[in-house]
Amino acid sequence: MYSKFGRIEDARHVFDKIPERNSASWNNLVSGYVKMGLYWDAVVLFVEMWGCCGIQPNGYFVASLLTAFSKLENMVLEGFQIHGLVLKYGLLNDVFVGTSFLHFYGVYQLPCCAQTLFEEMPERNVVTWTSLMVAYSDNGYPEVVTNLYKRMRHEEVFGNQNTFTAVISSCVALDDDFLGYQVLGQVVKSGYLDNVSVSNSLISMFCSFDCIEDACYTFEGMIDRDTISWNSIISALAYHQLYEKAFSLFSEMRHDHNDVNSTTISALLSVCGTIDCLNLGRGVHGLSLKLGWNSNICVCNTLLSMYLEASRHKDAESLFLAMPEKDVISWNSMMAGYVLAGKYFKVLEVLAELLHLQRTVNYVTFASALAACSDGQLLDEGKTVHALVTVHGLHDNLIVGNALVTMYGKCGMMWEAKKVFQAMRDRELVTWNALIGGYADNKDTLEAVRTFKSMREEENSPNYITLINVLGSCSTETDLLKYGKPLHGHIILTGFETNEYIRNSLITMYADCGDLVSSSLIFNSLLNKTSVTWNAMLAANACRGLWEEALKLLLQMQRKKLEFDQFSLSAALSAAANLASLEEGKQIHCLATKLGLDSNSFVGNATMDMYGKSGEMNDVLKILPEPNMRPRLSWNVLISVFARHGFFQKARDTFHDMVKQGSKPDHVTFVSLLSACSHGGLVDEGLRYFASMTSEFGVPPGIEHYVCVVDLLGRSGRFPEAIGFIKEMPVPPNDFVWRSLLAACRMHRNTALGKVAAGNLLRSNPSDDSAYVLYSNICATSGRWQDVQNVRAEMESYKVKKQLACSWVKLKNQIVTFGIGDLSHPESEQIYRKLTELRKKIQEAGYIADTSFALHDTDEEQKEHNLWMHSERLALAYALISTPEGSTLRIFKNLRVCGDCHSVFKFISSIISREIILRDPYRFHHFSGGQCSCGDYW
Fold first, then answer.
1. 79 with 104: CB under 8 angstroms?
2. Which residues contact 37 (CB under 8 A, 6 or more apart)?
3. Helix 398-410 vs helix 429-441: angle between axes, to the nearest 10 degrees?
4. Of 727, 897, 674, nearest in space to 806 by CA
5. Euclidean distance between CA atoms 77 and 69, whole angstroms
6. Taking Cα atoms as reference points, which of 589, 611, 581, 574 lies closest to residue 810?
7. How much helix, strand and coil, in percent to the nearest 5, is found in the chain?
8. Whole-angstrom Cα distance, residue 871 to residue 818?
9. Secondary structure E strands in 791-930
10. SS3 (DSSP) at 226
């Protein structure tokens, strides 16, 4: 009696007072201990009974004892001993005892022992069959479970609720919907459809088979529901992203059932990782705090995932720091979130803290760390993580191996990537794709194709990712003809052309190889275009310099209510940057902020570049990440923006800050740095930086760096050094080298060397209009008018047309463009009247025209008149009459501003007391108070 009512101490007191105890006394107390969860006390009592009293156990006693063994750890040997004892006393014929042993062996992951015992049992009932099925089900043998079920039905034994639950879960594990629906028929026939546990299993099965309507039908038909029932249907709806229905049922659950647990909370949070659902997620977060589930580690981990998926990294960080307990999933989630956000230094900080605290790490931890080191600047850290992988014995892990191949490939170290690949014991399709992707990232088309062929020779079937990687390796017209088009044919033959991602990659490949017509044909032929397809076409247009078309595509996407992501926004921001279209750029930035994508590294850097190219230096600095959180791309953008705006010392200082922060410069860094030195007249510093590229930073010089050095020496008039440098270059000089030298000759009026540079430039490209124009200008400034006529005649013979100069102003949503001497604008009279007024004022202030910039053989008065017809002056006059007093004026020009216009803008900025920002193809000129940011050296 005391045992049944849970008063085990009273039961023991009575037991100890009994002068003579029989088997019933011992059995009742042992079973009482088991019912109370005092399993070890039950075992101790059994030892006392067996050792001291020699009382023979019965079947009921053995079943209780085996229950105790199942709940305790490391009691398998004792279980074997009891098995022997049972055999000795002939108790195994008792079905109840045999079933207890089946359960015991299942708990200790010995289903084979359970099977052997089962086959020896003289009598079996539904509980026996079910116990064996559960043993195999719990140990991951779903196929054995279904075979046992078929065998049981063949022997005409009907299942119970536990049987159906085990078989249904096995159908799910096997993804066998046919058998699942057969079992459903047996459930209905047997009358177990109203059983709560069976219905719960059916809901999970229907969800797994994507039959959400059947899952809802089953749930709605349930007479009784427990917490598992509600959680199952809410989880099913959440899995299928039916968040409105999930929250509606959750509201019903709270009203009708009101037993919310961590599973309920986690299921709801799993659908809240988007901007649209984030407020719902915050509500659930608040509810979890109210119900006291905020300390539950599963709930906290799901909250972490929700905030990270919604790009709310600060919220995730706050939650992570406040978590009272963290497991390996918590740490790994935070690392994966930082990887997605591009905060690679933070990933490594988390790893360092994990190792310092000696917490558990696994292959997922290192996979995230290696992904963080895949942007090139963290190669040294990546090598350290590789060493840690080896120390922790995870070097043979397939996922870690794939991450290593990917990391080395993205860092440009393909020999290391291939070395890891060859050392891997096991390889899968992902491994091959990682290696091919590395060659694609490094534009090594030949090796990408070779690896693709090797993969097929080893009888590995490619998937769409394989083909995307090979397509991505093609970047030239030669690649297109030799590899791209044949691969396109292979894609058609193998049926991959219907794959959306393949089609998008084909659009990108043709555009990268210069065939935008084919890209457009593929795009226009598609009836159902997704956001990814639009992104591919948008990026293709931006890549080929069709920036207005790119922005039009973004507008069309918005009208079609397609979702934007970091790729569409960064491509559109790039287009706005190159157009210097500040208004559109600001709108895209606002859209990125609204969508929560402004913190994405790609979008952030594209936004910085857009503001930089639109003349908004202050906005660049506002969104710039902190130095210790700043990726290399952000450093590069900042150096480039400073250089473009004439802040040469700041560009140089930023480079030194970058190095001090431990961010490794790359070839792009040095192009921006050398360009800053060139336009700032920092010749000796620039030469030192060029020398340190390889010696200190291990960056091999490319043709872009050689062009910068030639420009650096040429601008400063150090022509002998420039010629000597060109002769010593390890690569042949290209058009850009000769064009830079020719522009320097124009600046310093070096006619003889200009003729040599022009000749070399025209030899490689006879239709290059810049060569004719620059050389013609050199001759004109030297008064060699016959040579000017000869150059113009040669241009006509080759049908080369000079690019016409134009300037434009953007006011509100209108762009107003002016050519030289333009009279087409409706307000031309007011514009020229304003010019006359400005001319008079600056002449009074000391302005004297420099007619050497008037490149026509006329008298001085006509030359000065021609200078006042320049397009940038017309644009400035129009801006002055069309904008409010005190506002900043922004003028854009397609060609380099002439020296006399530069002087005029300086005088005018002083007279009108307004800032004027003039952007030409090379830089921004900030005119204020009679001074220019370029220091008159540009």
1. yes
2. 71
3. 10
4. 897
5. 10
6. 581
7. 70, 5, 25
8. 5
9. 806-811, 814-819, 889-893, 916-919, 924-928
10. coil
Q: What is the pLDDT of residues 290-328, one digit of tens each?
A: 877 777 888 888 888 888 877 787 888 888 888 888 889
Q: Are 140 and 124 contacting, i.e. CB atoms less than 8 angstroms apart?
A: no
Question: Quick one: tokens of 172?
Answer: 């799910």
Q: Residue 623 and residue 291: Cα distance in Å, rounded?
A: 39
Beta carbons of 621 and 628 less than 8 angstroms apart? no
Q: To 5 degrees, how large is the angle CA 699–CA 705–CA 709? A: 130
Count of H helices and E strands in the chain? 52, 6
Q: Which residues pair with 893 in a beta bridge?
A: 807
* Residue 811 pLDDT: 82
Read off the amino acid at residue 174. Answer: L
Quote the CA–CA distance of 938 and 933 in Å, as a whole number: 10
* Residue whose structure tokens are 């961590």: 262
Tokens of 906: 């300086």
DSSP string covering 491-510 = HHHTTGGG-HHHHHHHHHHH
**Residues contacting residue 730 through CB under 8 Å, at least 6 positions apart:** none
**What is the number of other CB atoms lying within 10 angstroms of the CB of residue 227?**
16
The set of residues, in sequence order, having a beta carbon less than 8 Å from that of 387 and lying 6+ positions away, is: none
Compute φ and ψ for 562, nearest 5 degrees: -90, 150
CB neighbour list of residue 285: distance below 8 Å, 6 or more residues apart:
269, 303
CB 635 within 8 A of CB 650: no
889: nearest Cα among 582, 567, 631: 582
Residue 747: HSE in the Cβ half-sphere, 13 Å Cα cutoff = 21
45: phi > 0 → left, psi -120 to 50 → alpha, else beta; which?
alpha
Distance CA 755, CA 752 (A): 5
Nearest-angstrom CA–CA distance, 117 and 99 = 9
CA atoms of 876 and 927, how far apart (whole Å):
12
Of the candidates 347, 271, 272, 263, the one whose C-alpha atom is nearest the C-alpha of residue 297 is 263
Question: Which residues partner with 925 through β-bridges?
Answer: 918
Q: Return the bridge partners of 932, or none.
A: 927
- The three-class DSSP label of residue 391 is helix
Distances (CA, A) of 502 to 312, 516, 525: 32, 17, 14
Provide the token pair at 750. 């070096």
Buried b (16+ CB within 10 A) or exposed e, 571-592: bbbbbbbbbbbbebbbebbebb
Helix (H, G, I), strand (E, B) or coil at 158: coil
Distance CA 134, CA 112 (A): 13
Of 91, 90, 94, 164, give the one whose Cα is nearest residue 126. 164
Residue with tokens 């088309």: 445
What DSSP string runs through 115-126? HHHHHH-S---H
464: how many CB neighbours lie within 10 A of its CB?
Answer: 15
Q: Kindly state the helix (H) or strand (E) to which residue 932 belongs, with its residue range.
A: strand 931-932
How many alpha carbons lie under 13 Å from residue 611 in its C-beta half-sphere?
22
Task: Name the DSSP letter for residue 854.
Answer: -
Output the six-digit token pair for 364.
């997922």
pLDDT of 240:
78
Q: Which two three-digit tokens encode residue 61?
A: 């006693």
934 in Cβ contact with 923 (< 8 Å): yes
- DSSP symbol at 889: E
In the three-class reduction of DSSP (H, G, I as helix; E, B as strand; rest coil), residue 917 is classed as strand
Helix (H, G, I), strand (E, B) or coil at 924: strand
Q: Give me the pLDDT at residue 581, please.
A: 83
Q: Which residue has the tokens 């030289």?
A: 820
- d(CA 711, CA 854) in angstroms, rounded, equals 25
Give residue 24's pLDDT: 61
CA dist., res. 761 & res. 738, Å (int):
6
Q: Is 545 strand, coil or helix?
A: coil
Residues of the chain with pLDDT under 70: 1-96, 98, 273-276, 782, 797-798, 854-860
